[in-house]
Amino acid sequence: MTAVYDPSGVHPVIGVDAGTATLREADHLIRDLTTTLALPPGTVACTHLIRTDTRRGTAVSLALPEEGSAEEAWQRLTATEMSTALGDRRHGPSEAAALAATEHTARRSGRAVLYAGVERLTGTVTVADLLETAIDQLTVVGAPLTTPDPTTPVLTQDHVRPEWREGHLVLALVPAVGNTLAPFEVPNPTPCCADHV
Fold first, then answer.
1. CA quadruple 37, 2, 137, 158: dihedral positive or negative?
2. Contact status, residue 138 vs residue 148, Cβ threshold 8 Å
3. Which of the residue ranges 11-20, 47-56, 155-164, 186-195 would you say has the lowest mean pLDDT?
4. Among 5, 28, 68, 138, which is most exposed with the fewest C-beta within 10 angstroms?
5. How far apart are CA 110 and CA 104, in angstroms?
């Protein structure tokens, strides 16, 4: 890994619940927060599906590279209507925010939208290019024991969303045309039953 973010270190994680319902809305929230909070390089931002008795939707988590930037982001976030959680601190109805922060801190779940090297994953890249980012591991759906050749082309569609699994940032890939691979998640999925309307 060549980026500022050190996956072995402990980083402060802020959970944010802005009432987003979909992953697309949560992706947009992360982009907005990146700008409005002036998130520093090395920040890892993830989306989380929330399914509790009181909340169905998505929340986001922000792992900041150091305490000072986390405190600054916390101060800005608590001046908004968004629910937030940082360690034992809470602002607003923060169950979903706390859950997102806890899962990201433990690296059990979270779909990474902002992470070291993501800006280089546009167009067609190689397997080796993917592994030069914060992505730790690759898995090929349907062939989980296969290790892709480092020179294999990957058609990113400018949309690469690895997920935290057991402490590792893992990207699921699928076979694509011409002996290439592509991320399992596509940028604009067709809603189920879209052709039945």
1. positive
2. yes
3. 186-195
4. 68
5. 6
pTM of the model: 0.89
Q: What does pLDDT average to over the chain?
A: 91
Calpha distance 110→114 (Å, rounded): 11
- Cβ–Cβ contacts within 10 Å for residue 61, how many? 28
One DSSP character per residue, 68-118 reads HHHHHHHHHHTTSSSEEEETTEEESS-HHHHHHHHHHHHTS--EEEE-TTG
Q: What angle do CA 172, 173, 175 make, to 5 degrees?
A: 155
Confidence band, pLDDT 50/70/90 cuts, at residue 188? confident
pLDDT at 9: 56
Report how far residue 110's alpha carbon sits from residue 96's, in angstroms, rounded to the nearest whole number.
13
Tokens (6 digits) for 167 = 């402490």
